[in-house]
Amino acid sequence: MALDALTRTRTETDSLGSLEIPADAYWGIHTARALENFPISKRPISVYKDLVRGLAMVKQASARANREIGALDPRKADLIDQASQLVIDGQFHDQFVVGVIQGGAGTSTNMNANEVITNIALELAGREKGDYAFLSPIDDTNRSQSTNDVYPTAIKVGLGLDLLTLLEELDLLRRAFLTKAVEFHDVLKVGRTQLQDAVPMTLGQEFHGFATTLGEDYSRLKENAYLLCEINMGATAIGTGITTHPDYGTAVLRHLREISGLDLDTATDLVESTSDTGAFMSFSSSLKRNAVKMSKICNDLRLLSSGPQAGFGEINLPARQAGSSIMPGKVNPVIPEVVNQVAFAVVGADMTVTMAVEAGQLQLNAFEPVIAHSIFQSITWMRRAMHTLRVNCVEGITANHERLGAMVGASVGVITALTPFIGYAAAAALAKTALLTGRNVADLVVEAGLMSREDVIKQLSPARLSGLETITAAIPVVPRSTQEPDPGVWAPEI
């Protein structure tokens, strides 16, 4: 019985001839031909659930619009509407089987959606799959539509939905860094420029900077999202609206806005919007920006945690797995490393999108499938990378207080905070002495009689060194002609 179910087929026919389709498949002959023609990625479009949902939303909106304007029998429109809703709710996604990379400007994807939704509707009506005389994938489910307006619109709707979940993860990651900024707010450390010791700061300031960077990217992504809101439904083949009712465009926009919850609008020039895919390039670029900046943060985390004995060793990342098959006890920063690699992939995907946008010709861009795949993959991988970075790394970071304190104490960079009181020349001379002898800068300043111990302690407090507490009183002018420390020059108490 099971074997019979596997071997049973139904015959479907298109303009090229007939094919046997598995009896249980909701897809049909157009999908079958795509499976034969494009065995490229071996990744079905169903890996991007929001693209599938976007397709179903477009079909549902079209069915409602066609019913409203009298272009489709109400009973047929209602069946398509119900079938589309099942797909929107997450059912039948395994039937969206065409590859993410395909020729034909997305026609195979559009037909896969038409066939699946039609056969679901046929079952709802008590009919057999493939009974297209009763309900047709092309004449009914695709009524008033073309791949050339359905496909780009579905991509934009899907990306709009996907972006919402990406932004949620991005904000959670930002908040995780903020939490650490609060935890480390008074932990002094040595800042670095060009990988050389600079002036002191707090570890909290460093982590707050990470949070601010991610917050800026949150804003940029939201700003670029508006580019996805311009759709071309009603354009049909090339933007002239051939085969559509004059009221269809307005009606389908209203219904699609309601169904998707997105602030969509119809392009003012449908010919231009059907051929131009620049919006995808701009949106992809904003994803690249976020990925690159997140990768930079991960580079910093790897540097700050390097060691544990011969590196910076300022922070400790959670140990996630053994780091070597030969070196016992070695633990690697695997979470930041995987985020780095995601960023590399996103940068490459953005280049792919750029070249595909450039390659469009005349009234249509035939390369939207690779554009869609590249952007959806970038969003998917970035969302997952943000999650693992937050949960498996950032939330468990601890500060190596003892090492941080020792490095600040031995750093000549702290003398920068004393230059308003002892002068640059004296500070430079003492810095040189500290480097040569390895002695504490504060001790050298006091021994030279340039400042009292009390004043040095005050000026080298965490709040002063990190700039959290500013000097508001007038700073006395210090003679700049002195090349060596002058025991008689010191700053009055502030």
From TrEMBL:
Q: The Fumarase C C-terminal domain covers which part of the protein?
A: 415-465
Q: EC no.?
A: 4.3.1.1
Which Pfam family is one of those matched by this entry? Answer: FumaraseC_C
Gene Ontology MF term list: aspartate ammonia-lyase activity
The record ties this protein, via PROSITE patterns, to: FUMARATE_LYASES
Tell me which UniProt keywords the record has, alphabetically: Lyase
The UniProt entry, under Gene3D superfamilies, shows: Fumarase/aspartase (C-terminal domain), Fumarase/aspartase (Central domain), Fumarase/aspartase (N-terminal domain)
Q: Any keyword Disulfide bond?
A: no
Which InterPro entries does its entry note? Aspartate_Ammonia-Lyase, Fumarase/histidase_N, Fumarase_C_C, Fumarate_lyase_CS, Fumarate_lyase_fam, Fumarate_lyase_N, L-Aspartase-like
Residues in domain Fumarate lyase N-terminal?
18-348
Leading EC class: lyase
SUPFAM superfamilies for this protein: L-aspartase-like
- NCBIfam families noted in UniProt: PRK12273.1
Its recorded name reads Aspartate ammonia-lyase
